[in-house]
Design goal:
Keywords: Isomerase. The chain is an alpha+beta fold. The protein folds into two domains: 164 residues, Diaminopimelate Epimerase, Chain A, domain 1, CATH 3.10.310.10; 168 residues, Roll (Diaminopimelate Epimerase, Chain A, domain 1), CATH 3.10.310.10. 16% of the residues lie in helices and 32% in strands. The protein is globular and about 50 Å long.
């Protein structure tokens, strides 16, 4: 099934319909998507990382989850398939796909599906309309980067096991540049755009064409990856890099996100969740750049084609686990000495749509 999930598009498969052996599976997916080829002319891919994605879904044996979701990023010009990152955009289509394929029975007018994200081990819960026992993709929810409107898919992310600040610090100096390394579902490096000599309002294509900037970002990413415990990230797509600038349209911050070389025309869901949480961290690079909310927990993250709203709440726990104050709610003391920030709640509204359902004929091996 080909589906749009959020601001991405991908091929969704039942795990049983693909080879179990990873190398055989990946070889088949490359041929299905038409890679390696900059146009992906001989497959389903859309010649861009945002449209060269795969979701593999199966029933879950985990009592806390209904289905398991494996995200695979298929290279466009390179013959590679990576499971090193998650995708919160395709995640929006996993629940509807599970109902369409009979993995989950519809639960009345609305259905909630608990999804174990195999790339990270984290859990997400997607809630979407199923009137009459069928997924309804029509609705009035609009998201930036997608024309028209569709039914809302509300995705909530319970607190994950990974530390919010992988380096244990709110701010690090990486390759001579102040950064905040944060992981609220997606390992992300936050950088003030001004510290790299750009405004943060440039068009993505202009930033991609800046070879000096590209070199600096690569150096930062490689060093930050090691600091975040990700090892050598030269051949991976994480961590993402998000440049921060003051908001231009009433949001909390303007962003330009690299994934990791191409500059995103919007921003990924999990990347935005990490940005939103990172802005609330006392002492982070967002201070003096962003305008986080003083009341409520909704953080509007602006991007090149609009915005994405993330609802997030941080709490500061002391090293012995004693709960501290909260951030993002306008109450409580923030940044108590020795306290560690934890993302207590993260939620987002996305949309998804079934584009076609049928048989794909892969390029011969």
């Amino acid at each position: 099934m080909l589906m749009r999930g959020g601001t991405s598009k991908g091929a969704y498969f039942l795990a049983d319909d693909l080879p179990a052996e990873p190398a055989a599976r990946d070889g088949l997916l490359l041929r299905i998507m038409g890679s390696p080829d900059p146009r992906q002319i001989d497959g389903l891919g859309g010649a861009h990382p945002l449209t060269s994605k795969v979701a593999v879904v199966s029933a879950s044996s985990d009592p806390e989850a209904d289905v398991a979701y494996l995200f695979l990023q298929v290279g466009v010009e390179k013959s590679e398939v990576s499971d090193r990152q998650n995708c919160g955009n395709l995640l929006a289509g996993v629940g509807p796909f599970a109902v369409e394929r009979g993995l989950v029975a519809p639960g009345g007018d609305r259905t909630s599906v608990r999804i174990r994200m195999l790339n990270t081990g984290d859990l997400a819960v997607a809630d979407f309309p199923t009137p009459g026992g069928r997924v309804d993709y029509a609705g009035s929810a609009e998201i930036s980067g997608v024309p028209g409107s569709a039914a809302p898919v509300v995705i909530e992310f319970p607190q994950g096991a990974s530390p919010l600040l992988p380096t244990g610090r709110a701010r690090d100096l990486v390759a001579g540049t102040p950064v905040t390394c944060v992981d609220n579902g997606m390992p992300t490096v936050l950088i003030a755009a001004s510290s790299l000599g750009v405004t943060g309002y440039e068009e993505p294509a202009a930033l991609e064409a800046d070879q000096e900037l590209a070199g600096r970002l690569r150096t930062i990413r490689l060093e930050a990856g090691r600091l975040m415990g990700l090892g050598d990230v030269a051949d991976t797509t994480v961590p993402k890099l998000s440049l921060l600038a003051p908001p231009s349209d009433g949001g909390a911050v303007m962003t330009r996100t690299f994934i990791p070389v191409r500059c995103h025309t919007a921003i990924g869901v999990l990347g935005a969740a990490s940005v939103a949480a990172g802005l609330l961290v006392e002492g982070g690079v967002g201070e003096g750049v962003a305008s986080p909310p003083r009341h409520g927990d909704r953080v509007r993250v602006e991007h090149p084609t609009g915005f994405l709203d993330i609802e997030t709440t941080l709490a500061y726990d002391t090293p012995d686990g004693t709960p501290g104050g909260t951030a993002g709610t306008g109450t409580g003391d923030v940044g108590t000495a020795g306290a560690l920030p934890v993302a207590r709640r993260t939620a987002v509204v996305r949309t998804a749509r079934k584009i076609f359902d049928g048989t794909v004929f892969p390029r011969p091996a």
